[in-house]
């Protein structure tokens, strides 16, 4: 299922072409347009779901696939096993696109707690 108004569904269907860095049958990885680190990639399930929890509920296999694709991209980017994975969930936590996406951030030192 896709949503006609969803930007990431348009990436998946090819109506709009992102800067793709990886892909599996069920997931797509592309560079964030406003990078917050030298490597900032978004990994999305090809099916439209709103957030990570919903993805875990409807397709745990796809959630696993998203995380494994993020790891593969991190390796391709030469991050040496040092990177951060983030699922923002809800506007109050910074989610602005309501198609589940995993942020892969790396290539610089990371602070904790996050802002
Ligand atoms: P979030 O705020 O967690 O929902 O993350 C949404 C991300 O999508 C942000 O980091 C944006 O920079 C990114 N984004 C928005 N529009 C585009 C686009 N056209 N291509 C790539 N990334 C985008
Ligand atoms: Zn979507």
Q: Topology of this structure?
A:
Layout: H1 7-13, E1 20-23, E2 27-31, E3 39-45, H2 52-58, H3 60-76, E4 83-86, E5 102-106
Antiparallel strand pairs: 1-2, 2-3, 3-5, 4-5
This protein binds adenosine monophosphate and zinc ion.
Helical fraction: 25-40%
Q: CATH fold name, please? A: HIT family, subunit A
Q: Please, what is the CATH homologous superfamily? A: HIT-like
* Hetero groups: adenosine monophosphate, zinc ion
Biggest β-sheet description: 5 strands, antiparallel
Spatial order of the strands forming the largest sheet: 1-2-3-5-4
Q: Helical segment tally?
A: 3
DSSP E strands, number: 5
Second rung of CATH, namely the architecture: 2-Layer Sandwich
Strand content: 15-25%
Low-confidence stretches: none
Number of domains: 1
Report on the structure:
- The model has no long low-confidence stretch (mean pLDDT 97).
- The protein has 115 residues and is an alpha+beta fold.
- The longest helix has 17 residues, at 60-76.
- Strands 1-2-3-5-4 form a five-stranded antiparallel β-sheet, with helices on one face.
- The protein has one domain: HIT-like (HIT family, subunit A, 2-Layer Sandwich).
- The chain has helices at residues 7-13, 52-58, 60-76; strands at residues 20-23, 27-31, 39-45, 83-86, 102-106.
- Helix 2 packs across helix 3 (60-76).
- The termini are far apart.
- Helices cover 27% and strands 22% of the residues.
- It is built from three helices and five strands.
- The chain binds adenosine monophosphate and zinc ion (ZN).
- Zinc ion binds next to helix 1.
- Residues 2-3, 6, 8-9, 48, 99 line the site of zinc ion.
């Amino acid at each position: 299922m896709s949503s006609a108004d969803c930007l990431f569904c348009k990436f998946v269907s090819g109506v709009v072409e992102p800067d793709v860095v990886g892909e599996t049958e069920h997931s797509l990885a592309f560079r964030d347009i406003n990078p917050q680190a030298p490597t900032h990639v978004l990994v999305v399930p090809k099916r439209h779901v709103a957030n990570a929890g919903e993805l875990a509920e409807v397709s745990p296999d796809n959630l696993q696939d998203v995380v494994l694709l993020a790891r593969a991209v991190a390796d391709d980017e030469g991050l040496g096993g040092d990177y951060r994975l983030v699922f923002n969930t809800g506007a109050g936590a910074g989610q602005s696109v309501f198609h589940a996406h995993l942020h892969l951030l790396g290539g610089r030192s990371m602070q904790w707690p996050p802002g």
